[in-house]
Design goal:
Elements lengths: L6 E9 L7 E8 L32 H5 L3 E6 L2 E10 H12 L3 E3 L6 E10 H5 L6 E8 L4 E9 L6
Parallel strand pairs: 5-8
Antiparallel strand pairs: 1-2, 1-7, 3-4, 4-6, 7-8
């Protein structure tokens, strides 16, 4: 690909479906002076998720209970950490997308409740450990060897 253009970007879909390798969904062949492809050039996102959270009894619980949060998400140095106990998958994915600064698209809620213990894994490795209904779209810059997340999607289970 790098012989075809000086700047090559490839958008991939990552999912956990059985035997599914990363699937290219867009290839951009640009010259040095061309702008980078738009974030939504191939992967359209028409929805927006909003999560309202909080504890109406905050401050009334013992500190030990407050430290035992049912959902914690951090993304540092390109490594994702997720600790979730009996949390809806849609809420976990929303928090991950929020931490990454990317959109989250809820195409259908599988109703899955998950227990996750992911500790400092690369984002793509972490996603394939979650659910077969999760899709991650990333853009790879072949010249700079950078991977950038674009969109996190929760798809509907088949037959829904």
């Amino acid at each position: 690909m790098q012989l075809l253009a000086s700047r090559v970007h490839i958008d991939y879909e990552i999912n956990r479906s059985p035997g599914a390798p990363p699937h290219p969904v867009g290839i951009y062949l640009n010259d040095e002076g061309d702008p980078s492809p738009a974030i939504n050039a191939v992967i359209a996102n028409n929805s927006q998720a909003l999560l309202i959270e909080g504890d109406t009894e905050e401050g009334l619980q013992p500190e030990a209970v407050l430290k035992e949060q049912p959902l914690r998400v951090t993304f540092e140095r390109n490594a994702l950490t997720v600790k979730a106990k009996q949390q809806p998958l849609s809420v976990v994915l929303y928090k991950i997308a929020n931490e990454l600064g990317i959109p989250f698209d809820l195409k259908g809620d599988s109703g899955e409740v998950v227990d996750l213990d992911i500790n400092k894994l690369p984002l793509e490795d972490a996603v394939v450990r979650m659910s077969q209904h999760v899709r991650l779209y990333i853009r790879v810059d072949l010249r700079l060897l950078e991977r950038r997340p674009l969109l996190l999607v929760l798809t509907a289970p088949k037959g829904s």
